[in-house]
Design goal:
This protein has 21 helices and six strands. The chain has about 475 residues and is mainly alpha-helical. The protein has three domains: about 30-120, Orthogonal Bundle (Fumarase C, Chain B, domain 1), CATH 1.10.275; about 125-375, Fumarase C, Chain A, domain 2; about 380-460, Orthogonal Bundle (Ribonucleotide Reductase Protein R1, domain 1). The strands form three sheets. The protein has a two-stranded antiparallel sheet with strand order 1-2. A two-stranded parallel sheet has the order 3-4. Helix 16 (about 380-390) crosses helix 17 (about 395-415). The structure holds arginine. Arginine binds near residues 38, 125 and 332. It is found in: Cytoplasm. It catalyses: 2-(N(omega)-L-arginino)succinate = fumarate + L-arginine. Pathway: Amino-acid biosynthesis; L-arginine biosynthesis; L-arginine from L-ornithine and carbamoyl phosphate: step 3/3. This is Argininosuccinate lyase. GO terms for molecular function: argininosuccinate lyase activity.
Length: about 475
């Protein structure tokens, strides 16, 4: 390795020299430095960069590529740098481009030649691939906790309001009565799938890339599997070229984040509607709403609106990275540096949205009187009447027709089906008997839906207990 008497970085001549400056005459244009730097945002990877470098240094010593003294100097230097960054005592230098070179340069300034040996058998291409994987593996855990937090808020609400009825909607038209808890537990399922998706993504990305070097591998006698074990990865990547150009894991995480934010956005839309005068299904606590600067009476649901609004930004991050990767030739291309800002911004946005959503739900009360009232007046038990006729052996299509005619009759007279006399009902089908009125009640309708996954109280209680068990709430 080219060195200046074992003291590189410490002489004036080398002070402003790039780590890759050997073949270059003079300095880089300031405009180029400003345009190409990534340290302004990739500094966030410092902990994972250091974690990866420590494992790499241990491997180099084990393989006899550096001495044990050199390894110890590197480990000590890296630990110092980590605490300097943590305590805000580290100066990031934009002319050193990225987090990898900022740390390497600081290390060399601290420990001399040993620091210069750290990059043996490594390229920034496999280094950055490792750092992002380590970073996302940790973020995966944070996301899982936040998602579980939102699920818990839903489960608490579902428990609290067990028994309350409300209209279930399709096409935002009243369709069939359901339990409010059933509606709330639908979100429990959605965020549960999100947790599964993030876990799958992390499982796939937890593959150790170091050793791919620039893209062709290395001739030096490294031990990739040792590094993998040190970092808690079960596997190493299989193809050095793929390793250096692959950002599937970043795209996949952005997709997971987009789906989470979409789920939050659908919830947000319901909260906005439900808190309006038109619905009046919920009250959001004053501390979680804001007022208008001109209309004194206003109480606005800004939190759900912003969550809904931020969805464009998260989906935009996904699309931005997809388009960045499109058309890239094998293997690493500098374009890939664009992955990080998208990931960081999407992660920040989704984490903040999840955390505020849990708080918001904990500060929301449901108006069960209004929900029950809304189950009246939409012929929502019409399907139950059709099923009633089916149970009496009428073919479903005929039953559909009979009930359709009954609904038309009720609309003309401006009454609900259960307000008709039995005789009146029997004019449409003599299969209708006194027991029909059980079927026509909202409670009767809800509790008849006992199919697995249905809204009957017995089924919802089971689902609620399962959810509480899964979340360790009992
Ligand atoms: N800052 C770069 C990135 O984020 C690190 C890898 C640079 N590799 C290189 N050959 N220029 O992608």
């Amino acid at each position: 390795m080219a060195q200046d008497n074992g003291q590189p970085g410490s002489t004036d001549k080398n002070k402003n020299k790039k780590l890759w400056g050997g073949r270059f005459a003079g300095t880089t244009a300031a405009s180029v430095e400003a345009f190409t730097e990534s340290i302004s945002y990739d500094w966030r990877l410092y902990r994972h960069d250091i974690q990866g470098s420590m494992a790499h240094a241990r491997m180099l010593a084990r393989q006899g590529l550096i001495s044990e003294q050199e390894r110890d100097a590197i480990l000590k230097g890296l630990a110092e740098i980590e605490s300097e960054i943590e305590q805000d005592r580290f100066t990031f230098r934009p002319e050193l481009e990225d987090i990898h070179m900022n740390i390497e340069k600081a290390l060399t300034e601290k420990v001399g030649a040993a620091g210069e040996k750290l990059h043996t058998a490594r390229s920034r291409n496999d280094q950055v691939a490792l750092d992002i994987r380590l970073y996302l593996r940790d973020e995966g855990r944070v996301l899982d906790e936040l998602l579980a937090g939102v699920q818990k808020s839903f489960v608490r609400l579902a428990r609290r309001y067990l028994g309350a009825v409300m209209p279930g909607y399709t096409h935002l038209q009243r369709a069939q009565p359901v339990l409010l808890s059933h509606h709330l537990l639908a979100y429990y399922e959605m965020f549960g799938r999100d947790r599964g998706r993030v876990a799958d993504c992390v499982r796939r990305l937890a593959v150790m890339p170091l050793g791919a070097a620039a893209m062709a591998g290395t001739g030096l006698p490294i031990d990739r599997r040792f590094v993998a074990r040190e970092l808690g990865f079960d596997e190493i990547t299989a193809n050095s070229m793929d390793t250096s150009g692959d950002r599937d894991f970043a795209m996949e995480m952005l997709f997971c984040l987009t789906v989470i934010q979409l789920h939050l956005s659908r919830l947000a839309e319901e909260l906005v509607l439900w808190s309006s005068k038109e619905f009046e299904f919920i009250d959001i606590g004053d501390r979680y709403c804001t007022g208008s600067s001109i209309m004194p009476q206003k109480k606005n649901p800004d939190i759900p609106e912003l969550i809904r609004g931020k969805t464009g930004r998260v989906a935009g991050a996904l699309v931005a990275l997809l388009m960045t990767v499109k058309g890239l030739p094998m293997t690493y291309n500098r374009d890939l540096q664009e992955d990080k800002e998208q990931l960081f911004d999407a992660l920040d946005t989704v984490k903040a949205s999840l955390s505020i959503t849990a708080e918001l739900l904990d500060n929301t009360t449901f108006r069960t009187d209004r929900l029950a009232e809304a189950t009246r007046g939409g012929f929502m038990t019409a399907t139950d009447l059709a099923d009633y006729l089916v149970k009496k052996n009428m073919p479903f299509r005929q039953a559909h027709g009979v009930v359709g005619r009954i609904v038309a009759h009720c609309q003309e007279r401006d009454v609900e089906i259960d307000e008709l006399e039995l005789d009146e009902l029997r004019q449409f089908s003599d299969l209708i008997e006194e027991d029909v009125f059980e079927v026509l009640s909202v409670e009767g309708s809800v509790n008849s839906r006992v199919s697995e996954g249905g809204t009957a109280r017995v089924r919802v209680e089971e689902a609620l207990e399962r959810a509480e068990r899964q979340l360790g709430m009992t």
